Amino acid sequence: VTYCNRTHKERHLRANDREFNLSFKYANNAIKTSKYNVFTFLPLNLFEQFQRLANAYFVFLLILQLIPQISSLSWFTTVVPLLLVLSITLAKDLSDDITRHKNDNHVNNRKVEVLINGELKSEKWMNVQVGDIVKLENNEFVTADLLLLSSSEPLNLIYIETAELDGLVSNRFIKYSISILYISGEVRCEPPNNRLDKFTGTLTMRGETFALDNERILLRGCTLRNTEWCFGLVVFGGPDTKLMQNSGKSVFKRTSIDHLMNVLVMFIFGFLAFMCTILSIGNAIWEYQEGNSFITFLPRADGANASLSAFLTFWSYVIILNTVVPISLYVSVEILRLGNSYFIDWDRKMYHVKSDTPAQARTTTLNEELGQIKYIFSDKTGTLTQNIMTFNRCSINGKSYGKSSKKKVDFSWNPLADPKFCFHDHKLVEVVKSGSPEVQAFFRLLALCHTVMPEEKTEGELFYQAQSPDEGALVTAARNFGFVFRSRTPETISLVEMGVPTTYELLAVLDFNNVRKRMSVIVRSPEGKLTLFCKGADTIIYERLHPSSSKLMEVTTEHLNEYAGEGLRTLALAYKDLDEDEFEKWKERHHEASTSLEDREAKLDTIYEEIEKDLLLLGASAVEDKLQDGVPQTIEQLAKADIKIWVLTGDKQETAENIGYSCNMLREEMKEIFIVAANTAEEVREELVNARKKMSPESGDEPPIEKSRLLGKKSQVVEDEKVDGEYGLVINGHSLAFALQKDMQLELLRTACMCQAVICCRVTPLQKAQVVELVKKHKKAVTLAIGDGANDVSMIKTAHIGVGISGQEGMQAVLSSDFSFAQFRYLQRLLLVHGRWSYLRMCKFLRYFFYKNFTFTFVHFWYGFFCGFSAQTVYDEWFITLYNLVYTALPVIGLSIFDQDVNDRWSFQYPQLYAPGQLNQYFSKMAFARILLHSCYSSLVLFFIPWAAMCDTVRDDGKDIADYQSFALLAQTCLLIAVSVQMGLDTYYWTAVNQFFLWGSLSVYFAVTFTMYSNGMYLIFTSSFPFIGTARNSLNQPNVWLTIFLTTILCILPVVAKRFLFIQLKPTINDKVRHKVRQAKAVPPPLPRKFPRRRISTRRSGYAFSHARGYGDLVTSGRFLRIPVKSRPALFPHTDTPVADSTPQTYRTIFEEAQSP
After folding, report:
1. Which of 780-789, 1002-1011, 1067-1076, 1128-1137 is predicted least confidently?
2. pLDDT, tens digit, for every residue of 630-661?
3. Strands 373-378 and 644-648
4. For burial by CB atoms within 10 Å, which of 293, 505, 1042, 1120 has the most?
């Protein structure tokens, strides 16, 4: 072999030849997802933690505290909080990495049988090499990326479940049969990559070359099902497998509050430096003016002067005032987010009983962002709709059938009919029975032209496993009307036509893809007649019709328009009789194209075009994709919360538009709905500008841009423009491609953002992500993307928040999402309840946290003016250590996990409560400035009232208590009680946990204080506990308690007065609703459900195909498709539970409980 792998453009391997394959140094099959090992864990983890600014800052403080000339605080005041924070993070990261190690070891030590020197030997997965032949047995995981060689099933058919990859179950089969023991073939293929849907290569064996594509490869992550055994050749191992290549790091998402906190922490550092500078200047002045008076009994060190004293004082105050930089903030935020994530996981009202699917918060860092959503980007099929299709209407040879009577058609004459199938036009059955050739050809096409896999467990009981629900619906319709698809092999399709078994020879499948938008099969009938059957999008089929079909096309088009008004998905059906000689020549050209290694798909498309022309039209089919429960009500509810919804779908414009009306996105009362469907860039621009001018005549040509530069990043934010009334916008994929060009992006954004609802049709997955990125980049708004299929993954990852719906299209969307649930209607609960509460709680937490820390620190600042700027602390050192860790930690966490302004029912009743989150009203730079002023006022009260009260005071027995230690105790007690009362005022929703945390923390404070100030502690640790007897001497005096009472009253009086005045004069939406809650004696009553009326339109509907590549090659090679049966234990297995008795659809509509079916 002369080929060398230096270029890395191609992989070359030999079966059963380890020596040859090892020369290329391909990766073995071991995987590693863990980050650390025993030696690297501590240094690497600490290195990562100290990259956080706050942690690095506290290490810097610790170093300062070890310098005697600077430090006036003991080292433990910094070490204890820092160690606690580092330990919690260490424990969390260690737990996560141990789990990863266990998973890696579990996978790497799995056993598999490998063919070595003609014998099957059991090997660990990690020891499997590229080029080995492995044997898999039923229900075993696929070891690596394998080329399938043979299996135990007839025709070498195998079934695999690919749920870890895409949620579907496919089957794979290789036509050629080979001797496994003595195979010496060579494979040349593409290098490792992350494309799950593509594989290109060739297998050379015994002088013959076979083309390899994705359908011949078993990917790691799949599971063998319903197959006794199979053999496969390892092509990629371990980190080179497509599963591992796709497990790259996800996009790290941060909330807007995270970004704001980073800015505020930078400001706090500056503010700290400012305070320390003032105090150090004060120290220099004091030393210069007053310092000489103290030299007699406090002599200065050699060379010391006022300047050096000021310099050292600056660093001393950096240590003392460090509490303005909140080290415990980050840990508290993580605890809070984790708690709110559990509330989402545990919410029974977001649990779907039918599919046994609970809601899941897949990330714990984005909860509060759910309360700030302004734009929702939604897929249509499977997200708004059920992705369960029913065959409703059809047009055959110019006649329309379907829905002519309420009575269901009786299919008892057909023993193989599907009992679940419903149809309401008896005339069609009569025409089929009468033997009409056109009608029979129509259903024959539906029974032959597809990639469905039949399963017949018992005689006459047929089950169809289809790639898409559309195909299943059409094949089932043909079955009920007498053309039963019974079985298939790679070369044949067996039907039962009006009771007569008939077998067709399957010669070729011309597969569906996004560009072709059609699929065809070429079959030979028992009589030897060659026919091409084709179905696809009507516009595509019409271009390929023979001129003789023009009149029939006109009539069929009228029927298609009629079906569109009902929001149905349509396909046009056509056929063509072929000449034997013409087909043989075409077949040769097809074989050449299919074995090409370069541009294989483009060459195949060209070959397909040659034969798919001069077709004869048969008619059209129409299937209905029903809306999910509660979709119209959910969209109406979200619109009331001022959330704008954009639907990004691959369907045709007409279908998407009709779905838009039926789900309340587009409404008749809207002033106008603009449709952008131009074919050139200039026309698109003109239509967008005209629409914008109609909505806002005074809007200028240049967009209103607010330029900002934050932390070195430039950003252009397009401001919202005022619009009078509600508008809608519909834009197709062709126009969208022009509109997304750089010079037209902002025009699209301005026009679309003026509309209440936007529908983008015929969009690709990439365009979905581009639209989301456009809004995310140029609007000061939080975006959410929701979808259920692999084509939604890019959109879900791009948006600030991605939501996956676990539906009919596999699990890829869910695996890429931040939150997931089973039904679109749960979105309103996720946002209007959990999202709003999480945002409210986070903002309250931050406001209170900064308030208590700034108040604590400012008292130190004022004390500096009374202690000669000597950096003496106003509090006891142990109080400084425990203030944030013990005395105020749990009450604020209790507040931020359990608090709610109104309950969930009232949140639904008044969706306008959601608006403050969109406007960042609860926590912003302005709110932070108000906290700063509030803290400043409180600290003045907390310092000067106790100072004035203690200045010339004596005890009842005449002894003096105007000493530093008594003052320190009084100041810290006043502070703790004042901030605790402030938290009580901030708490809307009291629980037993809140009460326990608040009163418990105060009790712990007094218990610790009396213990630490006791004689015993002083005698044991004299230097650490100097406040001997202070607590019992001070806290038994009435005037001390009176001072505490007065200080607390003065601290909270302005807060209470302000709230009273604002509620009376300028109440917020929260104030108004809380007032109604107090007046109401019960929760709001359910309102009658409103049903959206059916809108009749003359627009044509979209074609009924899944927007993904089909499985034609798979069918012709015998590798069929099956959908997985999910086996998952019930979440609530007891049938007598409330959840089992009443499905949690109480809140699936806007205001009322859903009626039980």
Report:
1. 1128-1137
2. 888 899 899 899 999 999 887 767 677 778 88
3. parallel
4. 1120
Closest to 832 (Cα-Cα) out of 1142, 1140, 1073: 1073
* pLDDT band with cut points at 50, 70 and 90 for residue 183: low
DSSP 944: H
Binding-site entries for Mg(2+): 379, 381, 788, 792
Distance from the Cα of residue 1067 to its chain's centroid: 36
DSSP reduced 3-state for 393: strand
**Which residue matches tokens 């009409």?**
436
Helix (H, G, I), strand (E, B) or coil at 621: strand
Q: Are 453 and 1122 in contact (CB under 8 A)?
A: yes
Identify the bridge partners of residue 718 per DSSP, sorted by sequence position.
Answer: 705
Residues in the chain, overall count: 1157
Question: How do 727-731 and 119-124 pair as beta strands?
Answer: unpaired
For the ranges 74-78, 138-142, 174-178, which has the lowest average pLDDT? 174-178
Instruction: For the chain, give the percent of residues with pLDDT over 70.
Output: 83
Identify which of 272, 158, 261 has the alpha carbon closest to the alpha carbon of residue 217: 158
Q: Which is higher by pLDDT, 1034 or 1124? A: 1034
**CA-to-CA distance for 1108 and 768, rounded, in angstroms?**
15
Residue 197, classed as helix, strand or coil, is: coil
- Record the tokens describing residue 110, joined without a space: 């799995």
Amino acid 374: pLDDT: 93
Cβ-based neighbours of 212, under 8 Å, separated by 6 or more: 147, 187, 189, 199, 200, 201, 202, 203
pLDDT of residue 156: 60
What b/e readout covers 708-724, taking b as 16+ CB neighbours within 10 angstroms?
eeeeeeeeeebeebebe
The neighbouring-strand residues paired with 860 are none
Q: Which residue numbers are catalytic? A: 379
CB burial of 357-370 (b: ≥16 within 10 Å; e: otherwise) equals bbbbbbbbbbbbbb
Cα separation, 932 vs 767, whole angstroms:
45
CA distances from 14 to 1, 149, 189, 706 (A): 10, 14, 12, 62
Q: Phi and psi of 785, rounded to 5°?
A: -115, 140
pLDDT single digits (tens) 828-878: 999 999 999 999 999 999 999 999 999 999 998 999 898 888 888 888 888
Task: Determine which helix (DSSP H) or strand (DSSP E) holds 458, and give its type and residue range.
Answer: strand 453-458
Residue numbers belonging to the annotated binding site:
379-381, 471, 512, 535, 569, 649-651, 762, 768, 788, 791-792
Instruction: Mark residue 398 as left, alpha or beta (left: phi above 0; alpha: psi -120 to 50; beta: remaining).
Output: left
Cβ neighbours for 964, distance < 8 A, ≥ 6 positions apart = none
Pairing of strands 133-137, 111-116: antiparallel
Copy the structure tokens of residue 454: 């039949």
Question: Average per-residue pLDDT in the chain?
Answer: 81
Q: DSSP labels for 310-344?
A: HHHHHHHHHHHGGGGS-HHHHHHHHHHHHHHHHHH
What pLDDT, in 10s, does the model give residues 528-557?
A: 999 999 999 888 899 999 999 889 999 999
pLDDT for residue 40 is more than 50: yes
Alpha-helical runs (H) found in 865-918: 877-882, 889-898, 904-909, 915-918
Sequence-separated (6 or more) residues with CB below 8 Å from residue 159: 169, 171, 224, 225, 226, 227, 1122
Task: Check: CB of residue 411 under 8 Å from CB of residue 645.
Answer: no
CA separation for the pair 795, 802 (Å, rounded): 8
> How confident is the model over 1057-1091, as pLDDT tens digits?
999 999 999 898 888 998 888 888 666 665 555 54
Neighbours of 808 (CB within 10 A): 19
